[in-house]
Amino acid sequence: EVEKPISTSCYKALYESDTLDLTINTLKSGKITGDMVMKIENMPAKIGKITGEFRGDTLFADYSFIQGTNDKVTFKNPMAFLKQNNELVLGSGKIETYLGRSYFVKGEPIDFEKVKYKFTTVDCMSK
Fold first, then answer.
1. What is the pTM of this model?
2. Do 24 and 8 meet the contact criterion of CB atoms below 8 Å apart?
3. Which of 10, 25, 55, 58 could form a Cys-Cys staple with 124, CB 3.0–4.6 A?
4. Do the beta carbons of residue 37 and residue 15 sit within 8 Å?
5. Are the C-beta atoms of residues 95 and 111 closer than 8 Å to each other?
6. In this structure, are strands 70-84 and 58-67 parallel, antiparallel, or unpaired?
7. How confident is the model at residue 126 (pLDDT cuts 50, 70, 90)?
8. Phi, psi for residue 72 in degrees, rounded to 5
9. CA distances (Å), origin 55, targets 52, 99, 124, 126
């Protein structure tokens, strides 16, 4: 059974020719689910789901996505978004892969300063 979200927020990040669209659903348990589409210049679109939870003002999530028309391979990347006022800043950090799963390296800081993508709140488009 799918848990109904208690709130849904939509965000968009623009950087040069790149467009990222993010929808975040907050569940009663505090867990976060959602969808993200990353359209990066000169790359196939990444379309996928996001799951995670806030720890303080930072959303730690896994992004499971397919790239372009290749729906046979699902990629999974860790992501961290820092909530600043009405923005979500996509941080970058060192990632290691262990037993086929990618994680942020423990003890290594995640950079929220030198970033490309800052998501601002937008109206959610109804499907």
1. 0.89
2. yes
3. 10
4. no
5. no
6. antiparallel
7. low
8. -85, -20
9. 10, 25, 24, 29
